[in-house]
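Input sequence (485 aa), recorded before submission:
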Amino acid sequence: MSFVLACDIGGTRMKAALIDEKGDFVARESAPSPQPVGEATEVDADLWTRGFFDLTETLARADAAAFSQVAAIAVTAVTRTQIFLDAALRPLRPAILWGDVRAATLIPELADLSPGDHPERERLNAFHPLARLRWLQRAEPDKAARLAHVIEPKDFINLRLTGAPASDSVSMARLAAATAKGRDGRSLLDACGLPASLAPPLLRPATVLGGTLPALPGALGRLAGAPVIMTGNDTWTAVLGLGALRPGLAYNISGTTEVLGLIADHAASAEGLMTVDWGEGLTQIGGPSQTGGDALAWLSSIARDATVGGTSASPEALLFLPFLQGERVPYWNPDLRGAFLGLHRSHGPDDLRRAVLEGVALLNRVVLTRAERAAGLDAADIRMGGGGATPEWAQIKADILQRPLAVSAEPEPGLLGAAIAAFAALGSFPSLAAAQDALARPASRHMPNLAKARDADRLFRLFEDAHAAVAPLSARLAAWTRGGG
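Predicted structure, token format:
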């Protein structure tokens, strides 16, 4: 029996496991992910490496026999997080995290610099890697001058394991698109005076990057030469673990933030959504939001009587706009702000909690609706996983999305997806599809309540109207905060 050492670096926790070829977890461990200090949205990249090494040590002690039979290592992690390396492959500064919006004020400047017909120009926003690079040029020019590579957290751990700076074509899709030449022969990096070599070599996910170095510390030293598998970002890997990487299926990864997308066998584009070639002839249409379980955590911090499974007592309608940290997909607006609309004296903590659950589900519906229209198909099934995949929230989403929803049997689909990618790369299965069929298993299925379809449609229209009405006020509040309103 062979095993994969899988690791998933999330925004809240780092998780690692030893997983066998049947998809069974023989040992698993977790620890808090490194967090920014104070108001910063930065993390020392070496903290991710240390956390990974510590989890590996714990797993090796937990099951020494399985650890001795590790056939490959596969790491996945949060994306939209940049680590800037110098020529000696050392970080120049702390990594800029996924939710950082410091580059928002540079978007008009970037748009003016960019060739007008370049296809990536319309995708520029505060979260785009090019925007962060422009910020580095402006704020820290000495470091920008020494910049050699831009990679992400999983790539940094892989670098420490193999010595090879590389990434994958899914995680780096936006930076790769910025290096492509437009009709005038210039790329977006050219327009900013940046070299195309900043993008490291890009591999397809589920391929072998290289073997581990011979002198790694601790338990990893016993795995010298073990293949390190290039996965994709945490979304791609979790979708694989949900068994949803196949045409006609949709996915919902519900964690600190939400990710929702549709898988199609052809390219399609929709306003505000990310279209990425995910390999195997498949295209992902959708992307990550800024909200999810974090909105519930916020509510719990201010309304501690909001209970799991509580019932809404008030007959008064209540709507929640879940834009507590601005928004990525589908609005790409860091200035959006959250709101409860319809608050009434009769509302209590459980009414607020229900509205938060519904508000996130309604944002999911915006993404799904746009993706389905663009692809010309309706999702046959939605595969849901992550820490927010509770029966209560799954049923709310099935009712609001009006689609069948299957919850994964494995609560950590990112870890399982990393193992699926590794076993496929090792040849244990003939394809990623075959590996998904064998290892990704649903635990429960939630059918939409068709009697609630009219109410779901009505609530969805209210949500879209509310966003349109509140967005201008959000912009004025954000400007006020910055001292310009």
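Checked by second reader. The first helix runs from residue 45 to 62.
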